[in-house]
Design a protein that fits this description.
elongated; Leucine-rich repeat, LRR (right-handed beta-alpha superhelix); about 45% helix; 8-stranded mixed beta sheet; alpha/beta
Length: about 400
């Protein structure tokens, strides 16, 4: 039988002492290196972060740099798409999206500036969205943003909403195939939103999401004034959600196109939508709010006379200004006619007017004589004058 001998092990206290001694030596070495760097003046500058980076507006330069600072391992590829001709069927036509297995940004250029960014088929996580939220506001010509099946969450959607609010020229946003548990799509079309086109197709929007969207479109006290087109097709709105959408359309005066196809809406929901699209009676609360808005508008248009300047003269009532102008024009025309009569034309016209005036004078004298003769018959007519020579001869 073989017996194996085990090596002797240090005791617990001995092991701790050796470990502390080694760590002390490492700390001393690192402190000595830092002191040498300070003495030699070769201390490294503090490392930059994504918050310290200022975007240049060039997507090809800013994207890899921000990905490096944020810690994104795979930098998305940038592909330039050719500009598509406008569709004949209208603005609500759905655009086909292609699946992209790798991170890719499809961009469309206009005068060498990024006009449209399209992300489709790959997940945009929190780090990647931080990079995009830094780049998008620096693109001054960005007008359209498409995000199809990008795996948005409630937190990343909040980051995206704040980014969209910082883009000055962004007017079209397409968020399709991004289901949010909290149904917070209404945050993107609040009262201060500048979007004119929004597509929320295939996002599993239910009754609660429709209620929030309807209240974002308009309430008794607020309304969206910028949105022109809203696409809510291929969701689960139903009759109850359609009633909420119809309620949101009562005070909305900007929306021109609304798509609710494939939402399981029956006759009840369709009846409420049809009622809102025609003339409808206002409730007592709506009438009171309507009158308040009218009074507020009239008060804002009133201006004190002392504060009116020459440049603000056009803001006065159109009726009063037009009537004054009409009366002034009449007075000017009368003065012009009077001046024309005082100044006769040269040549033959002056000669023609003289005999006319003489004839009028003769007629007036004859008529006066006739009247005088008819009234005073006893008056004798004056004797004709006779020369003295003729009297002497007689």
């Amino acid at each position: 039988m073989e017996v194996y001998s085990t090596p002797k092990l240090f005791g617990y206290k001995t092991f701790i002492e050796v470990w502390n001694l080694r760590m002390k030596k490492r700390v001393d070495k690192s402190a000595k290196k830092e002191a040498d760097k300070v003495d030699s003046g070769t201390e490294k500058e503090p490392q930059k972060t994504a918050d310290d980076y200022h975007c240049s507006g060039n997507l090809e330069v800013d994207l890899p740099m921000l990905c490096k600072l944020t810690g994104v391992r795979e930098v998305p590829i940038i592909k330039i798409r050719q500009q598509e001709p406008p569709s004949e069927s209208g603005i609500m036509e759905s655009q086909m999206s292609t699946w992209s297995p790798k991170p890719c940004l499809q961009i469309e250029l206009e005068n060498e500036d990024v006009k449209e960014v399209k992300i489709s088929g790959w997940r945009v996580d929190e780090k990647m969205l931080q990079v995009l939220s830094k780049i998008f506001p620096s693109l001054d010509s960005l007008q359209s943003l498409h995000m199809w099946r990008t795996g948005l969450t409630d937190y990343t959607f909040t980051l995206l909403r704040n980014t969209i609010a910082l883009c000055s020229n962004l007017r079209k946003v397409v968020l399709e195939g991004n289901s949010l548990p909290e149904q917070s799509y209404h945050l993107i079309i609040g009262e201060g939103s500048m979007l004119s086109y929004l597509s929320l197709r295939n996002n599993h929007i239910g009754e609660e999401g429709a209620r929030l969207i309807g209240s974002a479109l308009s309430t008794v006290h607020s309304s969206n004034k910028a949105l022109l087109s809203l696409n809510l097709a291929f969701n689960n709105i139903g009759d109850a959600g359609a009633i909420y959408i119809a309620q949101g359309l009562r005070f909305n005066r900007s929306l021109r196109c609304l798509s609710l196809s494939y939402n399981h809406i029956g006759d009840k929901g369709a009846a409420h939508l049809a009622e809102v699209l025609s003339t409808f009676a206002l409730t007592h609360e709506e009438i009171v709010e309507r009158r308040r808005l009218i009074m507020k508008r009239e008060e804002s248009t009133l201006v004190q006379p002392s504060q009116v300047s020459l440049t603000d003269s056009t803001s006065l009532s159109v009726h009063s200004s037009s009537s004054l102008d009409h009366n002034l024009n009449k007075g000017v025309k009368k003065k012009d006619n009077f001046k024309k009569e005082e100044k006769p034309a040269h040549g033959q016209t002056a000669k023609k007017e003289e005999p006319k005036l003489a004839k009028k004078d003769n007629k007036v004298a004859r008529s006066q004589v006739g009247k005088m003769g008819g009234k005073d018959k006893n008056l004798t007519a004056p004797e004709p004058e006779v020369n003295l020579k003729e009297k002497v001869k007689q």
